[in-house]
Amino acid sequence: MGSISHCSDLAVAVVATRSAGISFGVDIEDAVNIEDEVVAMISSPNELEKLLVLPRCDLPISWRTVLFSAKESAFKAIFSATGSAAAPRDISVTIDVDGSFSVAWDADDATGAVPLLLVGRWLMWRQAVFTMAWIRP
């Protein structure tokens, strides 16, 4: 199993054997501000409120970019584990300033999938935001 991503000048690939028992996803985004329309499409009002209380960061990033990237990596982990294409607004992300994030996914009853909890890490490097989310069995 594996996950890949790229941005304007970087790429990442992560692989593991299925026997490792971990489903994961990775994402890289250029450290630019995500447009209001995109944020509105992917985020719940609760997530947007949580972003507003995060402190200003010394790093040249936008918390909205971290949120977007965390949702991308969580989507990949969920799809790897379930085969279900989760809607971005159904993936609830909570970002922590320590470089971690948590994810809850309430599966659509029609898929038969069970709700999942994921954990993840984010970091800023070379003007890009990297995220990785994973589900432990």
From TrEMBL:
Positions of the 4'-phosphopantetheinyl transferase domain: 24-111
Binding positions (CoA): S5, H6, D27, E72, K76
Cofactor(s) needed by this chain: Mg(2+)
UniProt superkingdom: Bacteria
Gene Ontology terms for molecular function: holo-[acyl-carrier-protein] synthase activity; magnesium ion binding
Binding site for Mg(2+): D27, I28, E29
CC annotations in GO: enterobactin synthetase complex; plasma membrane
Alphabetized Pfam families for the sequence: ACPS (PF01648)
GO biological process annotation, one example: enterobactin biosynthetic process
Protein name from the UniProt record: 4'-phosphopantetheinyl transferase domain-containing protein
PANTHER family xref list: ENTEROBACTIN SYNTHASE COMPONENT D
Family annotation (InterPro entries): 4-PPantetheinyl_Trfase_dom, 4-PPantetheinyl_Trfase_dom_sf, Enbac_synth_compD-like
This protein's UniProt keywords: Magnesium, Metal-binding, Transferase
